[in-house]
Amino acid sequence: MSDLSVSEYVSHQDELEQEAKELMPWDPKTCTYEMGPLRQPVFACRTHKYIGLCYSCSIQCHTKCDIVELFTKRHFTCDCGTERDNQEPGERGFRCQIRQNREPDVPSFTNTYGQNFRGLFCECKKEYDPDSNDTMIQCVLGAECNEDWYHESCIGKNFPPLESFDAYICWKCVKKYDYYFKRILSHALSEKIIAHTLIHGIQEDKTEDPKPSSGMKRTADEVDSQPNNNEYSIFLKEGFSENLGKLKDSIEGNNDKLYLFLNDLVPFLIRDEPVYEPVENSEDTPDDMISNILRNAMHREQAIAGISAFNALKNKLNEFLKPFAETGNVVKEEDIKDFFQRPEGTSK
Ligand SMILES: [Zn+2]
Ligand SMILES: [Zn+2]
Ligand SMILES: [Zn+2]
Ligand SMILES: [Zn+2]
Ligand SMILES: [Zn+2]
């Protein structure tokens, strides 16, 4: 067994490089602000007024901030260096280090800031706990919940097996569009669209304190006519998009409300909107890559459980590489082999 420096090791080990690319697959050089609203990976900065940042800005501009990874959000515009960002200008006087604007840019007026931007997730409003085994899933509709993430256990009893459905719509979003979902559920094609419905959670006692206002207005009528036991989530079947498309096409008359709902409000359920991907990381030198991983790892302490295996690996790799990167010491080949032989996703 020979000892290698970190850079020697990396240059000889495709495997490590692959892992590094998975941890930080993109080159953080492009801010998406100028591209306007996009479906993209979003990061919230809890140090600077909870604004949402694009991938590159989370790494380049808010380096020392408390960042929460939110995964993808639709229709989001980066708020780094806009009037929403109260970060002091950097050394060179730039607001966003990538766009190099000296005056704050005009923020998008379409960004929606839900609780995730404060680092809170699910109905239980908790921070992400990387040690929890309670899987979290994201609401694919997002109209009411801002594409929130939910714990299995908070969604309801008898949560179906993950492999039995393809996408999830939370009870809040179902309730918002109750009329349309009732029609979809009673349609002949619903068997091919809906895998399960699940009543939300434990029935709440009416004497409990009302939930703190989240800024969402509810009319008295809505509250009265929609008792809690009518709240249910929908789990969509694999192939739901195609069949929702068929359902839409089967509707006669383009003024039908369901047609308009599917066509105008939730077209992404029929035709999945691609996620913007920053430029791939391909030219990094191994040393850069390692420092990037380390820097990035610090940004991602609060990632979401859908990728808990990824997270565990990241933490392990980070722990493993840190002393070497700091001191420039050699890495023993056996250590690295041992590292990669551990099964992915196990934490110990
Ligand atoms: Zn940006
Ligand atoms: Zn910040
Ligand atoms: Zn920036
Ligand atoms: Zn929860
Ligand atoms: Zn939702």
From TrEMBL:
Region listing for Disordered, in residue ranges: 204-228
Keyword match Cytoplasm: no
Zinc recorded as keyword: yes
Entry keywords, A to Z: Metal-binding, Zinc, Zinc-finger
Domain of life: Eukaryota
Segments forming domain Zinc finger PHD-type: 121-174
InterPro entries xrefs: UBR7 (IPR040204), UBR7-like_UBR-box (IPR047506), Znf_FYVE_PHD (IPR011011), Znf_PHD (IPR001965), Znf_RING/FYVE/PHD (IPR013083), Znf_UBR (IPR003126)
Pfam families noted in UniProt: zf-UBR
Molecular function via GO: ubiquitin protein ligase activity; zinc ion binding
Gene3D superfamilies attached to this UniProt entry: Zinc/RING finger domain, C3HC4 (zinc finger)
UBR-type domain mapped to chain residues: 29-100
Entry GO CC: cytoplasm
Full protein name: UBR-type domain-containing protein
Organism of provenance: Zygosaccharomyces mellis
